[in-house]
Amino acid sequence: MDSSKITERGRLTRQRIIEATGEQILASGIGGTTLDTVRAATLTSKSQLFHYFPGGKAELVREVAAWEGRQLLEAQEPEIHDLGSWESWERWRRMLVEYYIARGRWACPIGSLATQAATTDSELASAIATTMRDWREQLADGVRRMKAAGSVDSSADSQRIATVILAAIQGGLVLSQPERSAWPLEAALDNALAPLHHVATTR
Amino acid sequence: MDSSKITERGRLTRQRIIEATGEQILASGIGGTTLDTVRAATLTSKSQLFHYFPGGKAELVREVAAWEGRQLLEAQEPEIHDLGSWESWERWRRMLVEYYIARGRWACPIGSLATQAATTDSELASAIATTMRDWREQLADGVRRMKAAGSVDSSADSQRIATVILAAIQGGLVLSQPERSAWPLEAALDNALAPLHHVATTR
DNA sequence: TCGTGATTGGACTTCATGGTCCATTCTTAG
DNA sequence: CTAAGAATGGACCATGAAGTCCAATCACGA
């Protein structure tokens, strides 16, 4: 990460490589993504790939994971920092489904990376786990705000609810993929959010 | 699958290859599993691999997927064919978690294959999708039995509930993996089963 | 016993892919 | 204007993994 010796032009090239690699990984998996196809897609040369990512493919993939993680969390702004009311949760839910639909493929850039990386690259796996934890923490904060607002019973376990919601997203996407439809994702997500809604409306 | 020209000895060898490959895939993914490592683990030779799986690695992986799918459904017997009462669901839940714990790794042989295969081998992907559909259908049958028994409101959507449960399993495992614990899986699963329990007890 | 076909062993070939290297061009500070 | 260093091009190398091939061995029925 020594960005001192990099020009604006170089930074753009580097970013172009990361994004193209991310798209290819989402489309064909890590194994199905080769440096040659990345090179072709970005109109760069081998030397550039190793110039910007001295660690080779492994480092490139890690950078992709970091970038995708940031993108994913940013896509949930600003709602993810609210989630203090049922309406906010509903907006968040809509934005998230929108995000996945926009990507075209029914896969979470982080979730599918997690499955693929768990076995091969432990460093990558832990980086992804960190993103997951951040994400879960932000959702748990939202649940806490609901509790503070009295919209959710104070005995509720924020961490647990956040985990259930995240699991619903990941699992919903697994089932949405072959179905080529958002409905499994939406069904799973709605069911996971039910505790929030339910308590909020029946009180 | 012309089994006419295969002896018992050959059948055993073939099966040994399938099981060893399955273990390696679960541990290292499809890409991390090579014919050489399979050969080493099974004390066989290259020619045997191609003798029993003329289609090469692709065919071998498909056979593994089919076998793992059968194993997974069998592991849920006999409860999966009952599920007509809350007690049966509870037994089924316990058996399923037990199955994943016993495998050591927090991954579903079918779910993780689905993620990896979706992109590379469309034939494999559709075979896996079929297993998923079977599974979901059996769960949906269970929900229908609950409805028939009056334990679940007749307006409930069996398919939807089954999908939500499956998503909870898959997503729960994604989160259990980095956590190295069953609790995310159990939390997600329990939340997905809540509708069945809830209605059953509050009536 | 004998022979046919299944089974097995393992060397060899081919090819994709990650990675190295050096020459060339571009950019910018002084 | 010019030199230093960043950026780029692309040939080349090394390796690992899939797949081929032929010879050797085993097992069972006639």
Task: Give an account of the 3D structure.
Two copies of one chain form a homodimer. The first copy, chain A, contains nine helices and no strands. With about 200 residues, the first copy, chain A, is an all-alpha fold. Chain A has one domain: Tetracycline Repressor, domain 2, CATH 1.10.357.10. Chains A and B meet through helix 6, helix 7, helix 8 and helix 9 of A and helix 6, helix 7, helix 8 and helix 9 of B. The structure holds a DNA duplex (30 and 30 nucleotides).
Per CATH, the architecture of chain A is: Orthogonal Bundle
Task: Kindly state the percentage of residues in helix of chain A.
Answer: over 70%
Structural classification of chain A: mainly alpha
Helical run tally of chain A: 9
**SSE order of chain A:** HHHHHHHHH
Mean pLDDT of chain A: 93
Strand content of chain A: under 5%
> What's the quaternary structure here?
homodimer
> Which residues of chain A form runs of ≥5 with pLDDT under 50?
none
Largest contact between chains: A-B, 41 and 41 residues
Q: What is the H level of CATH, i.e. the homologous superfamily of chain A? A: Tetracycline Repressor, domain 2
- Output the CATH class name of chain A: Mainly Alpha
Shape of chain A: elongated
Distance, first to last CA of chain A: 52 Å
Largest sheet geometry of chain A: none
Number of discrete domains of chain A = 1
**CATH fold-level label of chain A:** Tetracycline Repressor, domain 2
- Quantity of strands of chain A, as a count: 0
The Cα radius of gyration of chain A reads: 19 Å
